[in-house]
Design goal:
Blueprint (H helix, E strand, L loop, with lengths): L16 E3 H6 L4 H9 L3 E5 L2 E4 H6 L2 H15 L4 E3 L1 H7 L12 E5 L10 E5 L7 E4 L2 E4 L1 H12 L1 H13 L5 H9 L10 H7 L7 H12 L6 E7 L5 E9 L4 E5 L2 H7 L6 H19 L2 E5 L1 H4 L2 H12 L5
Parallel strand pairs: 4-8, 5-6, 11-12
Antiparallel strand pairs: 1-3, 2-3, 4-5, 7-8, 9-10, 10-11
Length: 317
């Protein structure tokens, strides 16, 4: 069938996803689909699934993964649930540290063989481990967080845990309940530090990575979102992390933070000057050392930890 490029959009769903089986039912054969791919109208998401190329190119990394997940869940019935990194991203979790090259599904009955761009998992799911979204099953944020620990590591899992805790989409109690049922999972030892470090007060990916770096480098656990107080008892500022007994504060300077706290019509230069005045106020009220951390510092955790230790020792950070 020679299908005009403009007509294929009518075969796609509202997200721009098209399954081969649906195309075939409409008289579009494999040769026609291949021509649409070659013409730059469609891109192939995985075996039997396509997406409008314009939609795919306009999507960021996380959204492309969500498109892949949508295609996978349209291909499978209710015997599977979206899980692991896929469940986190579909529910709005950050993409940091996640392998988004494949969609993850957990089989509720039986199993499946490995296929391109799809990873199959086997694992007992209780009623409280699953939720329904867009007509499909997916694991709850609490379970998905712990699943990520086994597949993508502690740091990536902690980022997800803090995100969903701060968004009030799960609780520490729910995380602990899920953890109690997964003690025999492969790589389940990675879940222990996530449970230890998970903190609803932590607000961003950068702060979560800081928290993990402090732990991995053997620093004592700081107080997150510590409040600096005026002499009259009112709050002067809130800082990302503090070791009050050591007189050290850590502030993470990430792009997301500047977007979050930048005032309306404020220039970047004005915000930087306001932040400098805030830091001067914090030092004046506490007499403590403020250590500024940026993204690049998190890629060199040993050096970062040494800076903090020097500040704790009263030396230049």
């Amino acid at each position: 069938m020679n299908l005009p490029a403009t007509s294929v959009t009518h075969l796609c769903d509202s997200y721009g996803v098209l399954l081969r089986r649906d195309a075939v039912l409409c008289g579009v054969d494999d040769k026609a689909l291949a021509r649409l791919v070659d013409a730059g109208v469609l891109v192939k998401l995985r075996h039997g699934a396509y997406c409008l190329r314009a939609v795919y190119l306009a999507a960021d990394r996380a959204e492309r993964h969500r498109l892949l997940c949508r295609a996978v869940m349209k291909q499978y019935a209710d015997h599977v649930a979206l899980s692991h990194a896929s469940s986190c991203v579909v529910q709005g979790g950050p993409e940091y540290g996640l392998d988004l090259g494949r969609a993850h599904i957990t089989h509720l009955t039986g199993g499946g063989r490995p296929t391109l761009r799809l990873r199959h998992h086997l694992g007992e799911c209780r009623v409280n481990d699953l939720r329904r979204q867009h007509g499909h099953w997916l694991t709850t944020p609490a379970r998905a967080v712990l699943e990520v620990a086994t597949s993508d590591g502690v740091e990536a899992s902690l980022v997800q845990a803090n995100h969903f805790l701060h968004a009030e989409e799960t609780t520490l109690d729910h995380l602990r309940q899920c953890f109690e049922t997964q003690t025999f999972w492969p790589n389940s030892l990675r879940q222990h530090p996530v449970l230890l470090l998970a903190e609803p007060k932590v607000e961003s990916v950068g702060e979560s990575r800081c928290s993990y770096a402090f732990f991995a480098q053997g620093l004592s656990r700081p107080e997150p979102q510590f409040e600096v107080i005026y002499p009259d008892g009112t709050v002067a500022a809130r800082v990302d992390f503090a070791w009050p007994h050591r007189g050290v504060i850590v502030e993470f300077d990430g792009r997301e933070k500047y977007h979050r706290f930048r005032k309306q019509n404020e220039t970047l230069e004005e915000m930087v000057m306001r932040e400098k005045a805030r830091e001067d106020l914090i030092r004046r009220l506490t007499g403590w050392t403020v250590v500024r951390v940026v993204w690049n510092d998190l890629d060199h955790p040993v050096h970062l930890a040494n800076r903090i230790r020097r500040a704790m020792a009263g030396l230049a950070a």
